[in-house]
Amino acid sequence: MAGGLAAQLPHSRFRVKLPAADRGNVRQVELSPGLEVSIPAAEGDDRCVNALLPCTPYPAKQRLRKPNDLSAGFLY
User: How many domains does the chain have?
Assistant: First the structure.
């Protein structure tokens, strides 16, 4: 091993199962034909929290760089 630290926990009681992360309160909107994105459901909320991608709090201000091609990203 080169400069790292490895730890082996001796017993399963030391393992902690974390609860699932909250997905947040989002809803789906269609930005362009065939492209749906998640947006925060609450008015004035600008947090996608842990929502499934793609998610944007500003659907009216953002647009796709290439029409109907999410892989190219957004413009703001």
Answer: 1
CB-based contact 29:59 (threshold 8 Å): yes
Q: What angle do CA 54, 56, 60 make, to 5 degrees?
A: 125
SS3 10: coil
Over the stretch 31-66, which tens digit does the pLDDT of each residue have? 777 788 899 998 888 888 888 888 888 887 767 777
Q: Which domain holds residue 43?
A: 21-75
For residue 11, the number of C-alpha atoms closer than 13 Å in the C-beta half-sphere is 2
Read off the pTM: 0.57
Tell whether 4 is covered by a domain.
Answer: no
CA distance 55 to 28: 9
Q: How far apart are CA 38 and CA 76, in angstroms?
A: 16
Q: What angle do CA 31, 39, 66 make, to 5 degrees?
A: 30
